[in-house]
Amino acid sequence: MTAKREHKPIEAMTNMPTKKEISKGAWAPEEDKKLAEVIAIHGAKRWKIIAEKAGLNRCGKSCRLRWLNYLRPNIKRGNISDQEEDLIIRLHKLLGNRWSLIAGRLPGRTDNEVKNYWNSHLCKKINQKEKQSGASIGEESKGEKRTTEKADTVEVTREEKQSSCNNYTGGEESNTSFNVDDFFDFSNEDRLNLEWMSPFLEMDGRFTGMS
DNA sequence: AACGACTACAACCGCTCTGCC
DNA sequence: GGGCAGAGCGGTTGTAGTCGT
């Protein structure tokens, strides 16, 4: 289910009037092109000015997000490898929901992509593992129930699902406080080299033994 | 074939942080 | 020190594709 989705602009989907003619919703290819051109000239700074120069009816924030998550060079999209997945799981265990830090160790991956991947793939996986290990007896998987029961009998909101995912800390993280900078040398270019992780992979070994 | 539920992901929102004046 | 603007971050929402009945 990884088919590319082309979101239609909100204005195209609804008749909602635009607020001060600021566009929202999916970016059109022409918008991407304009934005990339302006950034090539002016650099990826001063997003408000970039938005104006590009003649886009977008706020600077939206331009920044689009650039960082989609248009930036060297962005890898999809196909998260097993190694990357493992790294995300381990880093999340250590850092919690600090997606930008996690993404910073995954070349070509954005915080948004890591976050989405976690919420849609990994949290389910981890919840299953937790259940298998018998961590929460009697605490049935609401998400799984939903596949077998009618929606009106089991109310599981997206919020509930997400909070259960986001609260996952590997069982210990919440009591583990450390200075991230002690562990991360962000000047290191070879971010997928797992050597940098060794100081705390040992510590991590105490955890669930997930790999 | 139709319909509703589920899923994936792009994009938005609100808050915090940082730097400048 | 206070106020402001820009940047960055995490949380959340909206939408369309896919799947199951």
UniProtKB/TrEMBL annotation:
Residue runs in coiled coils: none
GO molecular function: cis-regulatory region sequence-specific DNA binding
A GO term from the CC aspect: nucleus
Protein location: Nucleus
Record-linked Gene3D superfamilies: Homeodomain-like
Myb-like domain mapped to chain residues: 19-71, 72-122
Residues covered by the HTH myb-type domain: 19-75, 76-126
GO BP terms: cell differentiation; plant epidermis development; regulation of DNA-templated transcription; system development
Keywords: DNA-binding, Nucleus, Repeat, Transcription, Transcription regulation
InterPro entries linked: Homeodomain-like_sf (IPR009057), Myb_dom (IPR017930), Myb_TF_plants (IPR015495), SANT/Myb (IPR001005)
Predominant location category: nucleus
Biased composition (Basic and acidic residues): 139-162
Pfam family, one: Myb_DNA-binding
Region feature Disordered, mapped onto this chain: 129-177
Biased composition (Polar residues): 163-173
PANTHER family: MYB TRANSCRIPTION FACTOR, TRANSCRIPTION FACTOR MYB51-LIKE ISOFORM X1
Protein name: MYB family protein
Organism expressing this protein natively: Manihot esculenta
Lineage per the UniProt record: Eukaryota, Viridiplantae, Streptophyta, Embryophyta, Tracheophyta
